[in-house]
Automatic annotation (TrEMBL):
Lineage: Eukaryota, Metazoa, Spiralia, Gnathifera, Rotifera
Protein name, entry field: RING-type domain-containing protein
Region annotation (Disordered) ranges: 140-160
Domain of life: Eukaryota
InterPro entries xref list: LUBAC_E3_Ligases, Rcat_RBR_RNF216, TRIAD_supradom
Pathway: Protein modification; protein ubiquitination
Molecular functions per Gene Ontology: transferase activity; zinc ion binding
The keyword Metal-binding belongs to this UniProt entry's keyword annotation: yes
RING-type domain sequence ranges: 1-101
Alphabetized UniProt keyword annotations: Metal-binding, Repeat, Transferase, Ubl conjugation pathway, Zinc, Zinc-finger
Pfam families named among the record's database cross-references: Rcat_RNF216
Record's keyword annotation contains Magnesium: no
Amino acid sequence: FRCLNQECLKETCRTCGEPNHIPLRCDEVEKKDELDMRTFIENRVSEAMIRVCYKCKQRFYKLEGCNKMTCACGASMCYICRQPITGYEHFNNNNKCGATLDVVQLHQEEMNSAYEEAKQAYIERHPEASDLVLKYDPQQHLNANKPMRTQKAKRGRHRH
């Protein structure tokens, strides 16, 4: 429906009363509370795999290579535990942080964990959302085992 009042001109769906959502069907339209919850979770999941240089705050992630990351600013850190390091001794004396590790599996675990934590945090802040079922649940994509897209850091290069 399109209001012909020149001061309004609002377009709405005659079936559900929501703003016009053509070409989507009424049952495909994401409501505001669903959108808010989904974007909250998606942001947390994205942040889970991003590392931040402790010195210059540059954000990055890696797709392959060893876990000793050296930022363009000269700072070195462990990709797994995210702690500042010097040399490779950290990897020799640490069961958790090996010099090499399947980064896709690491990111998958981090993102799945972030999904669960984010969903719980959102429901704690918004108890009315406890029974909310997301039309577009980010977890569907997390468990799809799709290869991750290649993307370079925005500023500077991180080498190992």
